[in-house]
Amino acid sequence: MASGKRWGSVVLALVAAGLMNGSSCSDDDSKSGSGGVGGGVFTPLQWNNQASGPNGTAGAGGSSPLQWVDPNTPVNSGGGGVISSQDERTWYFPDQYLPQADPESPHPLSTHTASGTITNPEDLCASFINAYRQQVLGVGAGGGFLGGGGFPIGGGGFQNVLLPMHLNIRKSVRAHCKHIAIYHAGPLTINSPSTDTFFTGGVAPAGRTAKCKIATQGAAAAVISGPNYPDASSASNWFINNGVLQAGSQQWTHLGVGYWTGFSEQYYWSCMMATNPALVP
Amino acid sequence: MKKAAVAIPLIALLIGALLLWWNAAGTPRLAKRPSPTANGGPDAVPGPRVREKPPEEPAASPPEAQAGSLRIFVTAAASPLGGASVIVQREGVDDHRSFETPESGSRLIQGMPPGPYVVGVRHPGYLPGEARSEVAAGGTSEVRVELQKGGRIHGRVTDTGGTPLPNASVLLTDGKTKSPLGPSMGATSDARGLYELPPVSRGDYGLRFRHERFKVAERGDFTFFQGTETYEVNVALEVGARVTGRVLDEEGRPIEGARVMIGNLGSGGVTQSDRNGEFGMYGLTDAPVNASVSAPGHGTVIRRGIRPNTDGLEFRLPRPGTIAGRVEGGEIPEHFVVILSRHEEDVKQVLRVDTRYFTNPPGGIFVVPDVAPGVYWVEVEAQDFQSTDRPQVMVEAGKTSPELRMRFTRK
Fold it and tell me: Which chain A residues touch B182 with a CB distance below 8 Å?
């Protein structure tokens, strides 16, 4: 009888161990071997549509065929998930500016998103740029406004030092980042490979901002992309240290910072400063 | 009874073994929802969406029957071009592949999901090229990219004594706005001070030369009518002024990685303090500069009118407080900026000292951390909205202000 009790204890312990093991597994999907996309036998697979990163870079030379590696497989896990966004204006819709273009061309000209993955870095980059402007245009900076720079509370502030973000410019420069990321390959360039310049020239009506019905009395834009600019700090440092946008210039009244992530360059930044932007009815 | 005493433990043992085997074999379980941070970090609010595949669904590339192939030919002057960097991007999907062309200039890619692709090609001797192709299921498409020669800008960077300057940055700038056209249109001088920009297309351009120890130099009016012209631009950079110092916390310990902004209208930039809290900004003009030093977990310190060639500046960053508030109104702006102002004793004026941007904050709540102790006026501005609230708030170290309520109305 005592022996039976011992057997019973052993068996109960085994059963309990089995149950506990099963219980812990059911709460743990961390067995993925490849960056959270999947790969462990118990891991629910996730469709990951943002496969930047280790996406099969082949070396030089060799004439053997390359095998396309689907980014949605565990061996090719990548970046950050689908970014929910809405292209409010594209190369075709709602205004057909490019008669020669595919009537269903989805290339974006103005992109709205509520995703913090995009808006938070944009906000932070704009804050850094403004902080620098505040410093070089503020009181005491040589060649600036010695003795000036103060403002009465409620009096509108010191003109054109701290720039507000213009929503439509922001959507336009964000769309520029998204456009190049999704529909082109390689570094972000100031002008669209779709034959249009950023805010002047191009096909009628002139420039990308004009296509978004934004009129300005002047504007300057700058872009950077690539793995060296993963965050707002590195991006704003490049903009500031390279004199981009004449960051200290007082002629600008508004600012727009756009960002996108994923794809061949991983990080895309576009920044534009403008003078008195206004929407054309 | 005796039989039962043996049989019951045996059955239980069998059940236990089965349970162990069940788990080891990877029996499908209910899928767990991904955590909010699984697809984009802590800021994934409202966040990108992740769709899950059923666990039993294979995660491999598409079956051969559904896949297609693409043969890419890269040429220049109608001859095969090796050594070109190629990126193949599946349109609209974060799915790309890069490789370098062999001498034949041709490469075949197999196993591609059907759909539209764009092929981008770059080579140091040519303008970038791009072409599109549609990959069909079970078929092999072909795409050719013919690269064109571009204009050439090259030269040498030296100091005013003629000594070559390596590691000088040379950037192509827009002819009108003088804004650099991005790192991809730049070059760095070599040990002999020599540089050559990537090929340049038609247009009007300028150049911006920057070396961390020298003043920035700009050159302009380079017009490429045909896109095949060559300009040799040699530049001698002048040594600039400097400002050096240390960043410390309240207890005098060095702060590494503090963001140090120093500049005036003609020069300056951003740098970071090193592990000893030390920093240096060089290449400044001779005019007075302002400095602003910040670091996470510390309050920002601002100094004005610093004379160039000042060494040993010390910035002690105070323990910060936090300003919290909420925007209210019938309609909350999608995006707004919080502006902090305070009376600055050194200039006897009220100055705007900080701005923080917020987009779609839940409930209109904003939090401004890392504010140096003091008395601030708080303003909130938003496009197409107006607010007349400008409350004053006392910020104390380690404390969060009472929640401010900022009312908005549409203009």
Answer: 187-190, 222-225
